[in-house]
Amino acid sequence: MLWVIQLNTAIMKIVAIICLFVTVFMLSCAQLNNEKLSVDNSGVTAETRNPLSDTDSAIAAGQPLFVTNCSTCHGPEGKGDGASGLALPKRPQDLTSDDVSNMSDGQIFLVLKNGKMRDGSMTMPPIRRLSNDQMWQIIAYARTLKNARVSERP
Ligand code: HEC
Fold this sequence. Notes:
This protein has helices spanning 2-42, 55-69, 71-74, 83-86, 98-101, 105-114, 132-144; strands at residues 116-118, 121-124. β1 (116-118) and β2 (121-124) form a beta hairpin. It starts with a helix and ends in a 10-residue tail after the last helix. It has two domains: 6-42; 55-149, Cytochrome c-like domain (Cytochrome Bc1 Complex, Chain D, domain 2). 21% of the residues are buried. The chain has seven helices and two strands, in the order ααααααββα. Strands 1-2 form a two-stranded antiparallel sheet. It is mainly alpha-helical and 154 residues long. The structure holds heme C. Heme C is lined by residues 69-70, 72-74, 84-85, 88, 90, 92-93, 95, 100, 108, 111-112, 116, 118, 123-125, 127, 138, 142.
């Protein structure tokens, strides 16, 4: 019987060591990810222009990204009337409004990356899963909402 107990203890130790390694690995991944995010952010200021020069293909790529990442809150036409948006304490901005049209590309980028703080609480969460290029594509598409009619949209 003793060897069974000893074997069990040995297995437990191995499992514990594996768990430890997995935890350390996951923590270091999270760390790397954070560093990448902050490095990504640092280059962009309010003055930064949308770096994607091929506007037409940026708009085309931005449209489906807008639908999956923004329209739940901002609505399919960006009017601020998405289903989840209606439940928020601070209503999502109308992206076709003059206020948003007058924001620079860089300002919008920073809102997407950092989220929006108002009076000490976060009113819009940061968009985490997208690459910088995808952010710029969404911004290119969002600019078209002001003038486009629904029937003309891709
Ligand atoms: C969870 C809901 C939610 C999602 C998803 C969301 N937003 Fe927002 N957004 C808000 C809210 C709420 C505000 C209003 C914040 C405020 O005025 O304090 C806002 C404000 C904004 C503003 C105006 C910021 C300013 O400084 O006035 C822009 C531009 C914007 N959102 C763009 C986007 C884009 C583009 C996406 C998709 C990538 C997106 N949002 C996704 C909720 C959301």
